[in-house]
Amino acid sequence: MSGKSAIGFEMEPAVDRGVASRAIFDQIGVFLTANRLGPDPANYAFGYRVISDPSGPLARAVAALTDGGVRLTKRDIVALGGDVGNAPVDMPAMASTGQGLVAQTQMQVEGFQDLVRMMRNETADFGRDLAATANAIRVSTDTNAVSDVMRMTSAMLNRVQSAESQLEVATREASDLRAKLEEARDNARRDPLTGLANRRAFEEAYAEHVAKGTALCVSVCDIDHFKQVNDGFGHAVGDRVLKAIADVLAEQCGDHLVARYGGEEFVVLFAGVDLQAARDMLETARMLVAKKRYRLRESDEPLGEVTFSSGLTAAGPAEDVGDVFVRADRLLYAAKADGRNCLKTG
Questions:
Q1: Which residues of 93-102 are buried (b: 16+ CB within 10 A; e: fewer)?
Q2: Cβ-based burial of 165 (10 A; exposed 0-12, middle 13-18, buried ≥19)
Q3: Is 62 within 8 Å of 6 (Cβ atoms)?
Q4: Which of 26, 98, 200, 202 is packed most tightly, with the most Cβ within 10 A?
């Protein structure tokens, strides 16, 4: 009777070894063609691992990645433990991709499940055999029954020791994977240029504080005339300006969350302080930025005045983050209209 594998190909029962080999060979070809993978030995080896164990963790991970007609990439294959030969692969990028880590996690979880299932089955078999032999001892004087118990116990101990070794390796791999996942989670909430939190992290932090009933203030800050910096000196210089202002905001706002919201716009989430305390911190940061005289490191040419404007507001109890942001953003525009390099509260 035919069955369908975890990757969507029909699996026919083999009549003999030759037929089985030919069927697997054909299925590997279909698999490589479907994913537009070249017919090189590394791809064949990976395809064989998938096809030969259609219900195993690797096949299930491949099925999850290719669900909906998505094709495998070389990064996916490396993430799943495959070898792409001499093909160039961006290993740091591959290691940090959510998709690759999800696939590895799925394989790790399913590997644990398979190991626990195997241990449970073997323990159940041992228990049944031991119970049967114990019953035989009670009704018989056959000394071979005792030898059978000793033999079964020794075999079971060997299996338990083997399972413990496998479990130790799996646990160590799971610990490494957990660290990678935590790093990926942190990277997904951090702006790569400034090192600050990003918009997603800001919104999550806001929701967490609202759930706790924390008093909140939100500020939206925007660098004044930033387009002139990019147009006049280039985006590399613009990036350095962004980083410099991000550092000042982070230093002066202490433990409060400073995030890059997008472009030249920053947002600050003040938790557990009133509007005046938040204003004092922002004003200190604004004045420090305005006092600095930036120069190009390559030529020592003056960059000109760099300032930022800000709007600051207090959030109401359980107020939606979008509503608070819009109010702070309107105050920011009022600051821009009032000559820039200033702070408006409301």
A1: ebbebeebbb
A2: exposed
A3: yes
A4: 202
- What's the predicted TM-score (pTM) here? 0.53
Backbone angles phi, psi at 313, to 5 degrees: -145, 155
Total Cβ atoms within 10 A of residue 232: 12
Amino acid letter at 335?
A
What's at 291, amino acid-wise? K
User: Who's near 152: CB < 8 A, 6+ residues apart?
Assistant: 126, 129, 130, 133
Enumerate residues 6+ apart whose C-beta is below 8 A from 100: 75, 76, 78, 79, 80, 94
pLDDT in tens, 135-158: 666 565 555 656 766 676 666 666
Classify strands 308-314 and 343-345 as parallel, antiparallel or unpaired.
parallel
Q: CA-CA distance, 22 to 28, in Å (whole number)?
A: 10
Distance CA 299, CA 312 (A): 37
DSSP label at 13? P
- Provide the token pair at 238: 């613009």
In terms of Cα–Cα distance, which of 97, 96, 66, 61 is closest to 81? 61
Of all residues in the chain, what percent are helix, strand and coil, respectively (each to 5)?
Answer: 60, 10, 25
Strand partners, 66: none
**Known catalytic residue at 265:** no
Distance CA 302, CA 81 (A): 52
Query: Would strands 294-295 and 302-304 be described as parallel, antiparallel, or unpaired?
Result: antiparallel
Paired strand residues for 216: 271
Inter-CA distances, 341 with 41, 178, 221, 323, Å: 63, 45, 10, 24
Contact 275, 226 (CB under 8 A): no
| Encoded amino acid at 333, one letter | Y
pLDDT band at residue 35 using 50, 70 and 90 as cut-offs: confident
pLDDT at 214: 95
